[in-house]
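ESCALATION

Customer reports they have been waiting on this structure for their group meeting. Please prioritize. Original submission:
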Amino acid sequence: MKLWLLFFIVFSQFTLAENILKRTSFLGFVPESTQSGEVVVHQLHPQGTAHALGLRVGDKLISINGNVISDFSNLLTELGKIYEGDTITLSISRDTSSLILEAKAQGKPKEKGKGYQVNYGEFSWQHETIRTITYLPEKPRQDGAAVLFIQGYTCSSIDYGMLPDMSLNQLLGQFSQSGFTVMKMEKPGVGDSEGQLDCQLYDFVTENKAFLAGLSHLKTKNGVSAKNVFVFGHSLGVLHSAIIAEQGLAKGVIGYGGVFKPWIEYLHDIYEKQSVLYWGVTKEQAKKNVKLISPFLTKWLDSDLSWQEVIASKVAKRVIDAELIAINEELIMNRHYNFFRSINRFNFAALWQKSKSHGLMLHGMYDIQAIDGKWAKNIVSLLNQNEGVTGQELTFERTDHSMLKFINSSDLMKFTRREVTDVGKFNQKIASSSISWMESILSL
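Update from on-call: job pushed to the front of the queue and completed.
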């Protein structure tokens, strides 16, 4: 399987492993939908607890250990309480029958690599213990160069032992095979991370502080030179990279599938441009949608109104009735409303304009989420105005947000609609171009 952001294996949110933290269970199935509503089994993973339980395709989950499952997000929350070796009891609906299934929870497969070792570790930050996954090269570079990967906005785990061929694993694996020490980290409250924070409730500033702490932790690792550390930010991770670059905390930053505009303007583009380009919405309807949602976006993102005031407004009710955005109490797109409000208060253009780090911005021409490549060009233009740093932009044909390359746009849309699963392949040029660029910066 080569799927990244569009393919979901249901697994628990584990606690940190090795000698300190327990590892929670790996349920191991693909649901029919990760959105709101009932959870129905679409595909099974042979190493997961679902297989041990005897789940079948088409089974609908009712409850887990006595707790009702209302939707996919709720399932992930409940799974985070179950550890490897615990008894797991599922109530399901199969055809016209109600069944109770029971088994010991299976642990999630760990990542492995060729030409590098994968180390599962952790670091402490505030009241949190955060899972790290580090690729240690068998032949490390003499200059101690390293890379921190920063993921996008979701609260999904980035521990992909069950998906060894996915694009992210290939990207970071090739970095390590080239001698770079590579580290990725779970967000607080996600995966094996343990502590008081809930990923769906904290804001962007808190998340950024956690990544800054992770960057500091990477710089202390044996064999890593603090002055030769790079950051690879994917999607919303590019915004975290802007803060790191402005502070000069990395030798260089690489961004893929990012955003340049203020967040409220980006969301306007989602409704005005992305919907027309990819989802069959007419330009006329898109204009109507933008006119309808704009007042809501202003109240949500560009005000200090309480969420109760926002939701009670007439503009919010009109947006909800038109089904233009999914709202679940205080969550939008499975993050707290204040997460996106806090993003909108940053002037990322100003941060890039003050960057003390070199930058390489990468755009895939089939990147639906990024909409177009202007974000990369705009960032690079600002970088090249700075004294002492350089900016470069590269574009990859027929490549999507998850760095998969397709034969044509028809295959891309079939993949996006989940009509097919094995049509895209990791674009190897993203890895090779990034490695060449980092080597060129290290030689300056």
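Sent to customer with the following note: The longest helix spans residues 283-301.
Escalation resolved.
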